[in-house]
Inverse folding.
């Protein structure tokens, strides 16, 4: 997991200097000089591209640096307080859970989208012009090789005027090969464009619905993994506020929650048959999700107002499920689910 200063965008080199110069009161003049020396050229290049003057860019960098300096000072003050510091540590552990779940949803969304696009792709027809151009270029290369052999490697002497004729033929053949290579390159570029834009690249509404149903099922599964001791609720809170506003209880309560977080993360890592459980949950959701209209791929939030704690196993009917929790994964946007759903 990234260190707290890395999460704030503070590099290891700056952090090393910061530690060496003092934890709470730092003279930033040396750092400012180093920033100016190291980035002045880079700033000019970026400013030229963006149409911003050096002075404006440097002023923006100083403003960003000042905000970062204030953030670091505030975070150090938090970490120096036993209770606030323990809340901050728990905050970053909860953010790590949130990031892991969101990353898994992103990966699943991308994998299924690529899979279905790949399956719907139809290979472009063979281009006879490309085949003819390749054959022509190949014959010209063979002719050049023959002429070069005749000019430089054969043992018998040249007849009168023969050497000049061979030179002229070589020059003409090389010219024709250059033209053939240009035509061949153009045809190949056209072919690559056809391959880069495959037919059927847009997913159908039913396919997008199926992918979104799986994503929602996985998001519900993650909630159930971390709902014990309201860890999922705490992770949602951590995802929606800065560390300065984080408060989960007294130091002892934070330590107990942190221990539970470690337990749940370890249990999630040992989990077996997740694929089967998510598949069964998706099948259950498929029978209950409703959509605003025939073209919508994202279900209406009201159809997700409850969440079953358990969906029937493979040999049980889908009507066999556990307690229904009043948790709407979509409305509360657990694990930033909305950013992974296909529109």
């Amino acid at each position: 997991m990234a260190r707290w200063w890395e999460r704030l965008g503070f590099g290891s080199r700056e952090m090393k200097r910061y530690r060496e110069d003092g934890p709470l009161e730092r003279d930033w003049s040396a750092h400012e000089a180093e920033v100016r020396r190291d980035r002045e050229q880079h700033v000019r290049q970026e400013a030229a591209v963006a149409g911003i003057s050096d002075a404006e860019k440097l002023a923006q960098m100083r403003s960003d640096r000042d905000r970062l300096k204030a953030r670091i000072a505030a975070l150090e003050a938090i970490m120096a307080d036993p209770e606030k510091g323990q809340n901050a540590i728990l905050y970053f552990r909860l953010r790590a859970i949130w990031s892991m779940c969101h990353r898994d949803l992103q990966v699943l969304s991308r994998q299924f989208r690529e899979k279905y696009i790949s399956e719907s792709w139809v290979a472009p027809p063979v281009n006879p012009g490309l085949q003819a151009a390749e054959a022509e270029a190949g014959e010209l290369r063979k002719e050049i090789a023959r002429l070069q052999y005749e000019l430089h490697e054969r043992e018998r002497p040249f007849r009168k005027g023969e050497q000049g004729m061979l030179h002229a033929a070589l020059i003409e053949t090389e010219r024709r090969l250059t033209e053939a290579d240009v035509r061949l390159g153009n045809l190949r570029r056209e072919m690559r464009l056809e391959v880069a834009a495959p037919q059927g690249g847009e997913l159908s509404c039913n396919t997008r619905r199926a992918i979104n149903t799986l994503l929602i099922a996985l998001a519900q599964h993650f909630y159930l993994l971390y709902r014990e001791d309201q860890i999922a609720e705490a992770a949602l809170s951590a995802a929606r506020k800065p560390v300065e506003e984080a408060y989960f209880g007294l130091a002892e309560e934070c330590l107990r929650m942190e221990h539970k977080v470690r337990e749940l993360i370890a249990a999630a890592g040992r989990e077996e048959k997740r694929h089967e459980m998510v598949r069964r949950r998706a099948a259950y959701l498929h029978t209950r999700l409703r959509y605003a209209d025939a073209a919508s791929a994202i279900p209406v939030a009201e159809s997700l107002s409850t969440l079953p704690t358990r969906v029937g196993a493979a040999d049980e009917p889908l009507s066999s499920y556990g307690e229904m929790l009043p948790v709407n994964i979509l409305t509360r946007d657990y694990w930033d689910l909305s950013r992974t759903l296909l529109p």
